[in-house]
Amino acid sequence: VEDIVQEVYDAYRTNHHSSQYVLQREKHFHYLKRGLRQLTEAYECLDASRPWLCYWILHSLELLDEPIPESVASDVCQFLRRCQSPQGGFGGGPGQHPHLAPTYAAVNALCIIGTEEAFGIIDRKKLLEYLHSLKQPDGSFLMHVGGEVDVRSAYCAASVASLTNILTPTLFAGTAEWIARCQNWEGGIGGVPGMEAHGGYTFCGVAALVILKQEHLLNLRSLLHWVTGRQMRFEGGFQGRCNKLVDGCYSFWQAGLLPLLHRALHARGDPALSMAHWMFDQLALQEYILLCCQCPAGGLLDKPGKSRDFYHTCYCLSGLAIAQHFGSGDLHNEVVLGIPENCLQATHPVYNIAPEKVARAVMHFLQYPVPSLDPASAAE
């Protein structure tokens, strides 16, 4: 992999000036636009992940600042309505059993659309009942009824509950403590207590604790040491675990941790924090994404030699946005490699949708009280 990346970097530096780093916006837009309406047979294996496809594409479009036509947004809403289960939550497709992963994706997609139609699709009472049905005595959550437990489920549950104003102390009793037990000797977080630290699980664990306002339960310094060590010295991108290869998707799963850690350490009064840059090499990550992860025909990918897909398009662009934008408000600082047009819209590091979409969803659902559950549902 290093040899292939070396070839890419050498070829670029031989033929271009550094200002020529270019995000192929138009090509990515057309790739994403086609995917919203029609997919090739290669995507048949993702039949149980169709809300994810909606989310990956819609979020990529919002990062590129491409408006979603009203007719398309309404069609997505009605499709996701068909994915909603009578039991609560969303399945991977119409008529499929509910699962926390597509539930997270569906709620995020609806919040990106952000219309009354989109918000009105979410059955909050049934969603709350469904989350209670997955809650385990130790504070963890099942991914689906009869399914596995890991830290992804805690994050998915906390994310959808906080966005839709159904987060209650009872629902998440013991969850923060369970997540903290997933931090291991490396400093990162594994899927369950005692497992190897992994970038995706670490993001999910930290983001869930931020939502629950319990990130202080972690050893933050150990976590910072682990995640900064995952940025590859040569490639500039991130790996997911120790001794693994670089992968474009970890541009978000790992780099997205740094704003969360920055916030937690700042709240603790850490005097050594920069107020202009995240604690990773933002330019090196942008270089890896722009030179090694763009498909010439549009879309982004894992690494040179791999195929493009909507998953990597979403998370490469999300990581690029994290690397370009530091802070917010008066402390906002842009660090953009290449031409100014490379700058993406910012993304919320906890939810990975636009910050204004998070605010709109939260304000909308705060108008409504938390649904009351019958004792049988709450006790499940």
TrEMBL record:
GO terms for molecular function: protein farnesyltransferase activity; zinc ion binding. It is an enzyme of class 2 (transferase). Binds 1 zinc ion per subunit. It comes from the Eukaryota. InterPro entries: FTB, PGGT1B-like, Prenyltrans, Terpenoid_cyclase/PrenylTrfase. Residues 23-353 form the Prenyltransferase alpha-alpha toroid domain. CDD domains: FTase. Keywords: Lipid metabolism, Metal-binding, Phosphoprotein, Prenyltransferase, Repeat, Transferase, Zinc. Its cofactor is Zn(2+). Pfam families: Prenyltrans. GO terms for cellular component: protein farnesyltransferase complex. Its EC number is 2.5.1.58. It catalyses: L-cysteinyl-[protein] + (2E,6E)-farnesyl diphosphate = S-(2E,6E)-farnesyl-L-cysteinyl-[protein] + diphosphate. Gene3D superfamilies: 1.50.10.20. One of its GO terms (biological process) is prenylation. Belongs to the protein prenyltransferase subunit beta family. Catalyzes the transfer of a farnesyl moiety from farnesyl diphosphate to a cysteine at the fourth position from the C-terminus of several proteins. The beta subunit is responsible for peptide-binding. Essential subunit of the farnesyltransferase complex. Catalyzes the transfer of a farnesyl moiety from farnesyl diphosphate to a cysteine at the fourth position from the C-terminus of several proteins having the C-terminal sequence Cys-aliphatic-aliphatic-X. Heterodimer of FNTA and FNTB. Heterodimer of an alpha and a beta subunit. This is Protein farnesyltransferase subunit beta. It comes from Corvus moneduloides (New Caledonian crow). The lineage of its organism: Eukaryota, Metazoa, Chordata, Craniata, Vertebrata.
